[in-house]
Records
---
Amino acid sequence: MMSDFAPPIDDIRFVLDEIVDLPGLAKLSRFGHAEPDLVQALVEEAGRFAAEVVAPLNAVGDRVHSRRNPDGTVTTPPGFAAAYRQYVDAGWGSVPFPAEYGGGDLPGLVATAIAELVASSSLSFSLCPGLTQGAIHLLLAHGDPDLQATYLPKLISGEWTGTMNLTEPDAGSDVGAVRTKAVPAGNRTWRITGQKIFITYGDHDMAANIVHLVLARAPGAPAGTRGISCFVVPKRLVGPDGSPGEPNAVKCVSLEQKLGIHASPTCVLDFDGAVGYLVGEEHQGMRAMFTMMNNARLLVGVQGLAVASRAYRQAAEYARQRRQGKAVGATEPSPIVEHPDVRRMLLTQKASIEALRALAYTVAEAIDISEEDPDPDRRAAQRERVDLLIPVVKGWGTDMGVEVASLALQVHGGAGYIEETGAAQHLRDARITPIYEGTNGIQAIDLVLRKLPIRGGGAVDDLLADIQATANAAEREHPSLASIGDTLTAAVADLRTATAHLTAASTTDALAGATPFLRMAGLVAGGWMMSRQAVAARRRLDAGDGDPAFLAAKVVTARFYCEQMLPAARGHLAAVLAPADDLLAVAADVL
Ligand SMILES: Cc1cc2nc3c(=O)[nH]c(=O)nc-3n(C[C@H](O)[C@H](O)[C@H](O)COP(=O)(O)OP(=O)(O)OC[C@H]3O[C@@H](n4cnc5c(N)ncnc54)[C@H](O)[C@@H]3O)c2cc1C
């Protein structure tokens, strides 16, 4: 049974209507035409595109894989290139970018909803436009006018695609260890030499050119991250008329065989004196990367959400059809959806997804405000909020993606473990998301060491105060929401204790407590979002505004999350508060 993809448009619409403020974004001058009706229509159309054009490729891509041919070219699975052409023709990739370069000038929030739908339909497919967006953000922020004029229109239209080349065999989490060399070659060009590994869509047959953004070290560069520069290295050199010409000296020397995302070509790229162009200032490459990192990490959190959502909907459908065992009181075999334990698995998935979607979209909206609001104080406040929550969305979101995909497989029983069902692919595909774009361990360290100290702890204090205000509002709203307010209040208090402890702890103890802290922060941020959704759904129920079954399910799912999942936050507190001693006491050779 290979379930079709049914886009969760109603759930997305609920978040767009109730959790973020679309009319508020439409008041910002760049987004003036982003009327809520237009946005909702676009999202619906994206859902149709994802379901009809991309989703049918997901299983094929998993079976066939991308392959490297004897002549060194790379071929994606059947249907990928044609679907990508349709993606480009429909203009999906251009949605959030400036009209000046052919973009749609719509909020990044809208692009986030579209990205969710495309990643749900095929994570492998979505990575190509996803990486391209990263390259665009980087060039918009740091490219000189020549580079922007040459590359942005083609990247924004999607005619050309982009890659991010950071990783090398000895430079993974420690990007500062990059050894690829860049030597000035006159006429504003450089020659790039070295090997990059794990480069997503580093070569493929879906576009006329590939624009590699490559981190490399210029002569005399200081050691570490402060000595890294960023270069544009096109697969084909761009002629004076703007079209791709001679091949550059960059080759895909092999493709990795992987656990999942088989259709996405993961390349070892060899740069052999390839022509490159400096982006931004020499030695400032990491600074440039940081400007696109929030967007890229949000996108990966959304990938966790997207795969979870697809896996869950398939599991729910299976549970409605599969008959096994008799539910209490039944005389005939029951659909397994009638068993309380299966209900628990499904509701856990549904709650995780709804919490995560609301959080990810809230962060996307905050990015838009931080970039476009005319009020500098509001921009700064939202910027802080984004910086604080990005590691949570990426880390907690992708951990949830894997857990939900695993639960979705479990709902299928033995059939889930059999490839034909498709449940196994979701789990295999999801598993990369906690690893790339900074492992989740690195996200946790970023949260604790770099983000908690923002404004002397003021940013996290403000966040905790906002969450507490939501808990209070839930309690005031309706007696049926009282337990949501209570449990969220208790969890905020625990997170406050954990925050105070880590802020005062030694660096070693803070590093030791980082991952359980990130998990706590994710659970509490999820509770915040579920409380807001419960209040909104309750109001609409009382006003008779909307489908009562859909809205009642929102309230129950939020209560389930807050009463039965959120208390796990307290369970992580002991690990946050524990010193590193025991972790370090066991000798490395007996671990
Ligand atoms: C399918 C796939 C696609 C990818 N796509 C791209 C791409 O397009 N472009 C690109 O540049 N890279 C890409 N990557 C690389 C990816 O970003 C790295 O694999 C990732 O950053 C981790 O680096 P590493 O593999 O060297 O692991 P390591 O850095 O060796 O980490 C191993 C483990 O040690 C932990 N660790 C490492 N350092 C620390 C520390 N200081 N403190 C605590 N824990 C630590 C990590 O959390 C991890 O659990 C891709 C990887 C894969 C598998």
---
Amino acid sequence: MTTFRSSRTSRRQQMQAVLFRGGRIEHCAMSAPEPEQGEALLYPRMSGICGTDFELLHGYQDFSGVPGHEFVADIVRAPDREDLEGQRAVADINCGCGDCTECLYRGQSHCPHRSVIGIRGRQGAFAEYLTVPVPNLHILPQDMPDRLAVFAEPLAAALRITQQVHITAKMRIAVLGDGKLGLLTAMALRHANPDILLLGRHRNKLELFERVGGKTLQIAPNGEGALPRKAEGIAYDLVVDATGNPEGIEQAVRMCRPMGTIVLKTTAQRSAPFPFAGLAVQEQRIIGSRCGDLDLALHYLQYGLVDPRPLIETVLPWTEISRGMEIAAERGSKKVLLDHLGKALNR
Ligand SMILES: [Zn+2]
Ligand SMILES: [Zn+2]
């Protein structure tokens, strides 16, 4: 770990960072952030490239800055909590104001004034340093490898569904989309319902779910012809749209039974026609779903309830993020991880 000691009054240390600006990926030197009161200074060890990063690069949230919201980091300095220094942590990405009704009564993830690490108003982990509010930190068990812990944020997002829908073993559940989030969702929900069907276009990804005993259906790569329809006698109690495409919601509505539930995980920037009429007639319920409980995700990872490591496509030095984004954008590509230590092969 790099030593980092400077006071607020001294000249700030420089650091290397990756910027998304105007649709371009730039490498630059900039001042390292200083932890405000109640914050900790972190040094990322490993980070992950996520679909949201592509959306940010192309204008989602009018983003311009340092991205990176899936990460494992060392706590370098925590002026208010020195006992945490030197520990490894993951972090909740939503940073609320702490004073509003949302923050006080329901938690900070829907604070209207919130910043979101690497997504909105707060620098992310594609840099040598970042600052995070101490209450957002989740200290890792000592024996948890970085490449497992780096999945805590997306796995928490997958597990969020278990906190929104009462899932029973007899429900018929379909997960649409075999991207990283779709796979993690299918793997995570399987503990509550062993019969989940994962639908996707990529044989290599569907196989990852089959390997842990899951059921899959490959959709024709060029159309919707192979999608199960209610007319064919299949109607699901719960359909999760994790396609990442705005068209996914229409497919999900069509596959869902009357009065069934659709969970929307897609946050695509582009919009598509929405089947309002069918939804009203069928009295279906749509639930938006975003970030989840990192402690729950860490529990799943620590006890092997979900092992996301087969989802890793490659691990690159973090400075090769442009190549990483290219690989991650390839059709059928799995998770691209960025190694910030240059030696994180076994941790
Ligand atoms: Zn993400
Ligand atoms: Zn607030």
---
Amino acid sequence: MLATLLTAVIDGLEGALVRVEVDVASGLPICHIVGLPDASLSEARERVRSAIRNSGFEYPARRITVNLAPAGRRKHGAAYDVAIAVGILVASGQIRTSGEPCALLGELSLGGAIQPVAGVLPMVATLARSGVRRVGVPTANLVEASLVAGIEVMPLAGLDDAARAIAGPRGRRAAAAARAPTVAVSGSPGVQAQQSMTLVEPGSCVDLSEVRGQSTARWALEVALVGGHSLLLVGPPGAGKTLLASAIPGLLPPLSDSEALEVAVVRSVAGLLDPSARCWRERPFRAPHHTSSYAALVGGGPRLAPGEVSLAHHGVLFLDELAEFDRDVLEALRQPLEEGSVVVGRAQGSVRFPAHVQLVAAMNPCRCGYLGDPDRPCRCPPGDPERYVRRISGPVLDRLDLRVEMPRVRPAALLLDPRPESSAGVAARVAEARLVGAERNGGRSNAWLSGPEVQRLCGLDGRARGRLTEIAEVRGLSARGVHRLLRVARSVADLAGRAVVDEPAILAAADLRDPAVEAEPGLAA
Ligand SMILES: Nc1ncnc2c1ncn2[C@@H]1O[C@H](COP(=O)(O)OP(=O)(O)O)[C@@H](O)[C@H]1O
Ligand SMILES: [Mg+2]
């Protein structure tokens, strides 16, 4: 007997429909699976056989042929396990289907439990778009699958549940009860988020009131967050660079509905979507360690998963100890910083993952960390500080819009100064200025304005124009450098509530980027 079931696989960030055909016929007891890469074949076969036996069903001692179509599509992961197992049970007459199109997703354990899989959100979205009205998903992926409108979702804990799901409405356990209350919000085509999740929970991030002194760096961070400008913090060990960056999550406004959906898809494909989807609107803040591999940062690996730069989509990528990162990894960040997306290669073609990120980086000025410190001598051998900085390529350094020094905080300032402003006040200013910018820029942040847009949207008054010309001449700025300065000045003016970019905004923006960086792609010693 022949059984046909539906399932899905992940291709980049998109789900793709896969048809599972199972034929059980008389003949030698053997199981052939076609349409899978070699390594996955035997693994799937073993999991399915054990799971069927350990779930109280019989594994037919006959000739089983499984075809996963289309054969030409690459199939990653193991989300098709459940559909293969249920197909064998249908084809061997152990369970019945209602004939309604129903899809099944999930990986099997040898004991028959259905395990969560990555990419459920886009896979269910694809199924819904293809007209499938019902899908069974692993219980742990239920909330994420329920984000998709127009398809009924059933939780699957074991093969019994999957059998009930395909048996049709009567044999099925009511799934609706397990769902969270839904609120309709709009989304990108095909995926409509039904649920409005709890807003950002107060996390474990640092509050700005804990960061003493460092007024320049605090100000630079505020401007950077308003316009989405990249920021480099340079200072000796213990100056509070990591501390300041740890306050960023508490300063970022929540994601919009459409942004939240894009971020959820990336997290889903990476298998990192919180099962309760509580962080739905939390703007990403990713801080990968400097020992992270190329695949972990940029994306790729055997599963072709998105990397940290994509997990930070619509949020902040924080690279602490920038000079310690692998040079190739930093080089690979040029593309996302310019284009807002990253291309990850593989044998047959490549996939593009979104990576619209704001880069924040921190580093010591030299290996020992004390170059330029008024109280402690730098112990690096001659020429070493330059080499240390040159580990970061010029073009990458050039893409860091703002660069500020963070000197060591004096004990007196640390102990005696009044408590600094807390995150709440700064976050409110940032959110308001971002709104003003987004409204003027058609939804984009200042850092992502093109050259012509900068000219059109960053109107200068006469004095500001004169001052900008002067700075550009003294620093020998290219058109690119002028536009960069204008974008930052636009953010300063947005923070000050000014419609026109005035002279103080130009001067403030110029102060936030060391002239030495403009003149030459390399840090000033
Ligand atoms: N500006 C500061 N205000 C308050 N505490 C600070 C400051 N700078 C450093 N510290 C304290 O020193 C610790 C180490 O600082 P850290 O941010 O790791 O320094 P860096 O990253 O610059 O080497 C912090 O966890 C904090 O307790
Ligand atoms: Mg640090």
---
Amino acid sequence: MYAPRRFVPSDLNAGDWAQIAPQFDRLESQVGACQTVPDLERWICDWGELCAALDEEGAKRYIAMTCHTDNAEAEKAYLHFVEHIDPQIKPRQFQLARLYAAHPLRPKLPRKQYEVLDRDLQVTVELFRDENVPLETEETKLGQQYQKLAGSLTVQFRGEEKTLVQMARYVEEPDRALRQEAWELVANRRLQEAGKFEDNFDQQLNLRQQTAAHADFPNYLEYAFRQKRRFDYTPADCVKFHDAIEQEFMPLLRELQSRRRRQLGLSSLRPWDLAVDPLNLAPLRPFETVEQLVAGAQRIFDRLDGSLGAGFQTMRELHLLDLDNHKGKAPGGYQSTLAEARLPFIFMNAVGVQRDVETLLHEGGHAFHTLACRADPLYTYRTNLPIEFCEVASMSMELLGNEFAEEFYSAPDSNRARRDHLELVVKILPWVATIDAFQHWIYTHSGHSRKERTAAWLKLVDRFGDDVDWTGFERVRDNLWHRQPHLFVHPLYYVEYGLAQLGAVQVWANFKRDNAGALKSYQQALALGGSRPLPELFAAAGCRFDFSSSTIKPLVKLLRDELAKLG
Ligand SMILES: [Zn+2]
């Protein structure tokens, strides 16, 4: 599955700096010797080959660590890479970016092919500060501590030790007292650690502010926009997005919640009433074993498109799936790219709920993205895909895959699964706006106290909130953001989900009109990888990169109509 290397020695130990450094030395000396455009293009590919080897080493260690957060060897290997390899790579990468940026042949490179790479590398040169390297290392370590803490939490539930992930299914139980018991146990367990979460966050916030100041930015928000290569939208666009979500989506969310309240026969909704089926049907149980989950997903991908099905089949054969939940496994799900093999890997915590099916469809969409662009000669176009579009790939797959929910369920249960998912789409957008607006606030109010931060949070929870009664659990509400890993591990990375969700709903709307045409555009857009700017990627997939009410209104209408059809 690996193509032979052309530049990097085949026996390179990518975890040993003494062996890595000479590769950077060679690249530095060779770039000066490039006499022609093809020489420079070849050098860019050599550089990409080294990047891929290092990237894959880091990814493999991350995968091993998150699969076994309680394995000391895996933790040590990951931390070695984070603390001793990564920090040494960064200044060397920066030096190469600088040599590239200053190269006399750079303006002669074919513009269309290199423009995205070019603007990315220019930002790398513009933002790099030596003194930020140790701060970033410290931040990564704090992120890992957050994950370790969050992943280690368990509760005693009816005589058994359960992870918080395993507890999620009980809030779907029809028995209201049981739901409340399970919900309170989890909420209180998290609250016990609230001080630790706040401490961890404050340390990270401090590091982030320093990082931005070193790079001459007035605040971390503006720094992060540049660092995340958000060339195609601004903080002001995000504020407009928040407003449009409030205006267009909140009325639908409130309708759905009052319907839920009526169906449950309650005078008010409590936090443990949000995940249960409103007709008090037992939770959907799409599968018992991970093998059944994989087989069902395979059938869905096969029905959508033969090449998607074949891609998933390959992942199964190459053991690129780690799907079951067990103690010591980090929370959540992700798709990681093995950059040199040019293959995807999927990690998740399946426990037997519909959400697991959606997670696998979602991560499957990411995996198809990785596979679709694996032939691109440029490392950066295969691996540095803009998240705003990556999430279109994954979230579209949730919506499209659910069209074939019958692979897991009877017809009425399939409609239920689809309805639950569409309700989630309606619910997630205000949540994205909340988290994003909160981060805007955090990073533009330096020196704020924890009290002020909580007050800002509550204001947003009210604005994008629902009609849930939190009486008696105000402290839980104050600290709800602690469970959102992005704030800790990927700062300011969240609005992407909202922008992408709107793209995904557009792909789904296209699919409803024209199955084959929508899938064709979807795959063509995925094959572009990171080679084009965002508006072009969206356009290739048949969507608008615009988040004003004019784009959002028809999507809300479609969601409302579909929900009405599903009963
Ligand atoms: Zn994703």
